[in-house]
């Protein structure tokens, strides 16, 4: 392995790319380096230039600016690319990168549909390139602790059920001008693959699988009620969902989420095991399940209650969890003491490229399984059927995705 820093490109320089830059700065401050962003690429040259400036300001990097990824791949010697693009562009640009010999870290969800994601997984196998799906939430100390609590500690016994209910009023609309592009593509199912269930909701899909294993079947109802009318998922992106999930392990759970519920906000997240429960008590819009707004250093909180009345805070459980880790495991999971999922997922990618790890925690196939859960939820809401996730994963069912696949020629 040469001592030269790895040469990386950031492709897609919008909202989340800026968050990736801050995560890279977090790594740099911990002495975790050995990489440089040598190029940025965005179809919107202003976005690319602004990100180049941010990289210069925060990391001291001076990337070359490109507006087309083909030109970037043609001209720039690269080891890896970090893709922060609208979902409909993931499969083509990730595949082009891998065909050009470049390893890829791709933002969630893996692709716009199962067929798109499968194409990416196959490209990774064909080219022998790394394809890692960026999923920061399961890497945070809070979710790692909950995973340990549910799967290893035995503290609350065998997982049985969970309830995840979150509702809040719609945000005030500013209808004074055209919607910014970063909102527009999210409203276009052909570009986004769905609505909020596949956007930030994808994190829930991944976290639920991380905590409790694969889901066997789902039944879902979706509505768009912000307009004042109750409109079905066929007509408009959802703002309200109700999902019943049956896991292969037998666990049953209920996920209800509305961003258009007038009146009082409400949040209730609780897991029940055969000996007790875990309640999420984080007093913030970020919770154990969804940490997008979490800043490095902010902590989740929770309460474990056992049948005999004993209680533990999540911080106490985290202490037990951390005590169970060997120094090597602790360094692998929280490199340099990092506690920001974005920084940790980027560091995993760097170590994969350096040959210090063998495979991504969330590789293409793992990413595809989480996407299949999200698409099964749409399939159920769209058809009114109970849907088996395996049928969506294998392509046996794809009514909801069919027009999206057709649009992209998949
Ligand atoms: N992990 C998280 O918590 C999280 C949060 C937000 C977004 N995301 C994911 O990040 C990705 C990007 O989301 P975002 O919020 O940054 O979107 P965004 O709209 O803010 O940014 C997308 C950028 O891609 C650029 N772009 C569009 N077409 C392009 C092309 N052909 N070539 C190069 N650039 C092009 C746009 O100009 C824009 O700058 C999505 O996959 C999204 O799901 C993840």
Can you describe this structure?
Keywords: Oxidoreductase. By secondary structure, this protein is α/β, with parallel strands linked by helices. The protein has two domains: 6-137 and 342-363, Rossmann fold; 140-333, Dihydrodipicolinate Reductase, domain 2. It contains 15 helices and 15 strands. A nine-stranded mixed sheet has the order 14-13-12-11-7-10-9-8-15. Strands 3-2-1-4-5-6 form a six-stranded parallel sheet, with helices on both faces. Helix 1 (15-29) packs across helix 12 (341-353), helix 4 (90-99) packs parallel to helix 5 (114-127) and helix 5 (114-127) runs antiparallel to helix 13 (364-383). The two termini are 38 Å apart. 47% of the residues are buried. The model has no long low-confidence stretch (mean pLDDT 92). Nicotinamide-adenine-dinucleotide (NAD) binds at residues 11-17, 41-44, 47, 69, 84-87, 89, 107-108, 134, 136, 181-182, 199, 292. Residues 11-17, 41-44, 47, 69, 84-87, 89, 107-108, 134, 136, 181-182, 199, 292 line the site of nicotinamide-adenine-dinucleotide.
């Amino acid at each position: 392995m040469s001592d030269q820093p790895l040469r990386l490109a950031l492709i897609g320089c919008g909202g989340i790319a800026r968050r990736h830059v801050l995560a890279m700065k977090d790594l740099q401050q911990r002495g975790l380096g050995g990489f440089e962003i040598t190029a940025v690429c965005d179809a919107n040259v202003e976005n690319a230039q602004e990100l180049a400036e941010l990289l210069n300001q925060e990391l001291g990097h001076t990337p070359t600016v490109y507006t087309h990824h083909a030109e970037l791949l043609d001209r720039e010697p690269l080891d890896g690319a970090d893709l922060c693009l609208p979902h409909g562009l993931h499969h083509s640009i990730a595949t082009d990168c891998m065909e050009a010999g470049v390893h890829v870290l791709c933002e969630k969800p893996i692709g716009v549909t199962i067929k798109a994601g499968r194409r990416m997984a196959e490209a990774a196998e064909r080219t022998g390139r790394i394809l890692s799906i960026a999923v920061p939430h399961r890497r945070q100390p809070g979710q790692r602790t909950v995973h340990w609590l549910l799967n290893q500690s035995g503290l609350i016994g065998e997982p049985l059920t969970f309830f995840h209910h979150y509702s809040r009023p719609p945000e005030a609309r500013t209808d004074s001008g055209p919607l910014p592009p970063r909102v527009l593509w999210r409203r276009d199912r052909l570009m986004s693959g769905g609505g909020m269930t596949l956007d930030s909701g994808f994190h829930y899909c991944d976290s639920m699988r991380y905590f409790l294993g694969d889901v066997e079947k789902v039944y879902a109802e979706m509505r768009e009620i912000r307009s004042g009318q109750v409109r079905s998922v066929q007509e408009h992106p959802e703002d309200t969902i109700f999902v019943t999930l049956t896991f292969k392990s037998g666990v049953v759970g209920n996920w209800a989420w509305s961003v258009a519920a007038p009146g009082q906000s409400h949040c209730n997240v609780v897991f029940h095991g055969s000996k007790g429960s875990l309640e999420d008590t984080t007093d913030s819009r970020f919770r154990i399940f969804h940490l997008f707004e979490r800043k490095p250093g902010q902590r989740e909180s929770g309460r474990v209650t056992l049948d005999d009345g004993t209680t533990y805070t999540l911080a106490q459980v985290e202490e037990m969890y951390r005590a169970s880790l060997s120094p090597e495991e602790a360094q692998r999971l929280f490199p340099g003491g990092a506690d920001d999922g974005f920084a940790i997922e980027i560091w995993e990618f760097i170590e994969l490229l350096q040959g210090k790890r063998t495979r991504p925690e969330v590789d293409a196939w793992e990413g595809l399984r989480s996407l299949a859960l999200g698409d099964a939820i749409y399939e159920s809401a769209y058809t009114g059927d109970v849907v088996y996730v395996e049928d969506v994963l294998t392509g046996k069912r794809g009514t909801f995705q069919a027009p999206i696949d057709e649009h992209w020629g998949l």
